[in-house]
Amino acid sequence: MNEDEGAEQAAEENPIDADTLDIGEASVNVSDDPEQLREELGQNADRLLRLQAEMQNLRDRTSREITDVRRYASLPLLRDLLPVVDNMTRAIESAENSEETGSLLEGFQMVRQQLLTTLQQHHCTEIEALGQPFDPNLHEAILQQPSDEHLAGVVIMVTQPGYQLHDRVVRASQVIISTGPADK
């Protein structure tokens, strides 16, 4: 049986009702009852408003996601650059302890400062940790030790500085926190 014969057979089995037209998935009622037509119009208007609201929510969510992607696109690069900053800091500290490295030390300090300035221009800033209350969202505690000068839960030493991009942590600060005064 070809397509034309199948369509003719379907038309014979399902004759068109004079009051209802079937258009795809939706059927349209063509009755003369104005009250029923008003009710259907109200339902369709409500459905249209809901669809418009859904579309606006989709646009807003997509816009927020695009903004976040743009805002944090440099995160992998920053994670790769931070070990370079750490190594430069170690080289500077080592050169400060040696007497023969005056100009080399000065050069490293200038390059490190330039790199840190560039990171700041791209909204990557160091997390202030020393003397601050321990915050597991910003700090990674690697040791706890007693301290007569600090209350319990306060950062007393930073072993590796942490950085954040806008409000997102790139790398948490590795810190030593106080357990309070030592018991005697």
Characteristics:
3-stranded mixed β-sheet; Nucleotide Exchange Factor Grpe, Chain A, domain 2; elongated; 3-stranded antiparallel β-sheet
Q: Any overview of this molecule?
A:
The chain is of the alpha+beta class and 184 residues long. It folds into three domains: 32-71; 74-122; 126-184, Roll (Nucleotide Exchange Factor Grpe, Chain A, domain 2), CATH 2.30.22.10. The chain is 49% helix and 20% strand. It has four helices and eight strands; from the N terminus they run αββαααββββββ. It has helices spanning 3-13, 34-71, 75-96, 102-121; strands at residues 20-23, 26-29, 124-126, 139-145, 155-160, 163-165, 168-171, 173-178. The strands form three sheets. A three-stranded antiparallel β-sheet has the order 3-6-7. A three-stranded mixed β-sheet has the order 4-8-5, with no helix packed on it. A hairpin with a 2-residue loop joins strand 6 (163-165) and strand 7. Helix 3 packs antiparallel against helix 4. It is elongated. The termini are far apart.
Annotated CATH homologous superfamily of the largest domain: Head domain of nucleotide exchange factor GrpE
**How helical, in percent, are the residues?**
40-55%
- Total individual domains: 3
Most strands sheet? 3 strands, antiparallel
What is the CATH top level name of the largest domain? Mainly Beta
Shape: elongated
**The CATH topology of the largest domain:** Nucleotide Exchange Factor Grpe, Chain A, domain 2
- Topology as H/E string? HEEHHHEEEEEE
Low-confidence parts? none
- Provide a count of the helices: 4
Determine the strand fraction and express it as a percent band: 15-25%
Strand order in space, largest sheet:
3-6-7
Helix/strand/pairing class, anyone? alpha+beta
From the 3D coordinates, which CATH architecture of the largest domain would you assign? Roll
Give the beta-strand count. 8
Q: What is the CA-atom radius of gyration, in angstroms?
A: 34 Å
What is the average per-residue confidence, as pLDDT, rounded to a whole number?
A: 83
Distance between the termini: 100 Å
